[in-house]
Structure formats: structure tokens, C-alpha cells
Amino acid sequence: MTNAETGGERTTPLTVSRGARRASGSAPGRANGHLRTVEEVSAGGVVISPAARGFDVAIIARYNRGGRLEWCLPKGHPEGSESFEEAAVREVEEETGIAGSILTTLGSIEYWFTVPSHRVHKTVHHFLLEAVGGELTIEKDPDHEAVDVAWVNLDDLDRVLSFPNERRIVQAARQVIQDSL
Which of 105, 121, 115 is nearest to 38 (CA)? Predict the structure, then answer.
């Protein structure tokens, strides 16, 4: 791009990522050459069940928007006037088949990702839940996002979960459990 096309600014991939103006004809979903940002909020959790060795945790496998299989903690968007706690309990049961009762909050994580039309800033509120019923199944997932579900020992989750930020939430769960024993 020439300096004349950008009003005197020289653009490179770095300056574009920092907000330099683009030539006219920006892609759809862009305002002034920038992707619009959408805020999303979800809630979910670490649902535990006593096991021969400590505790097992119900996790799900899903394909991300890019088609890659990821093992992650169950989570989803609050519906209507649901609180984060109510959404977490519902989402855990929908995505894993396991009914849970909240023991405590584990904190929140934030991350960004981009889809063709916009950037997403997502905040996920996590809770520690005790399994109180149900059986592992993905058949209750109304969005059909989960493609598999499994009980994984709490001590093995670091090797199975796809995302470092969820591994940090699991570490918080381990600490809560250790402090409670």
C-alpha cells in the first residue's frame, strides 16, 4: 500500500494489526479496516466424582471452529436470566450427562479468537461441582457440540486438556480440594 492510499501512513502487517488504516474496500464485518469485537460470556466447570485414585473429572471433546478436536471443560452461554452458577450446572449436565451441585467458584478466564466476520473476547466463569447423578452421555447436548465425553482422573487432566487456561482452572480445583481435606 502506498503512503497516498493510507493518508500518509505506510502499512505493513504489523501496523495493520496495531490499527493502521486500510485502503477502501475493507472486508465484510470490518469498520474502518478493523474487525468488530463481540463480547461473549460462558459458564461451566470442573465436575468431580470420587475415584479409586482421588477424583475423576467429566470432560468433553469437541471440534473447534477450525475443525480441530479439543478436549475441554464443559461450558456454555447463560440462557435468559440465568446466573452464571445456574448456567454452569445446566451446561455441565447438557454436555456431559452428569448432574452437579456447585461447591465453590474457581475463577474466570478470558481469551480472544477470530472468526471470519469478527473478533471474539470471551470470558468463562468456572465452578467446582460435585457429581450428584446422571451418566456420561453427549445425547443431552442440544447444540451437538460435544462429540465425546469421558471421566479423566484429576491428576491426568494436564496431559489431556487442550488449553493452558483450563489447566490453570483445574489447578485451582486441585488446591480447593487439597485445602478441604
Answer: 121
Q: Which DSSP symbol is given to 22? A: P
Residue 48 DSSP class: E
150: nearest Cα among 135, 132, 161, 136:
136
**pLDDT for the residue numbered 34:** 83
- SS3 at position 3: coil
**Any idea of the CA torsion for 156, 157, 160, 162, to the nearest 10 degrees?**
-160
The mean pLDDT of 16-38, rounded to a whole number, is 55
CATH for 36-180 (3.40.50.720, 3.90.79.10, 3.50.50.60, 3.40.640.10): 3.90.79.10
* Separation CA 110–CA 121 (nearest Å): 7
The H-assigned helical ranges of the chain are 13-17, 84-96, 157-160, 164-180
Output 142 or 27, whichever has higher pLDDT.
142
Nearest-angstrom CA–CA distance, 5 and 2: 5
If you search the block for the grid coordinates 488449553, which residue do you land on?
A: 163
User: How big is the chain, counted in residues?
Assistant: 181
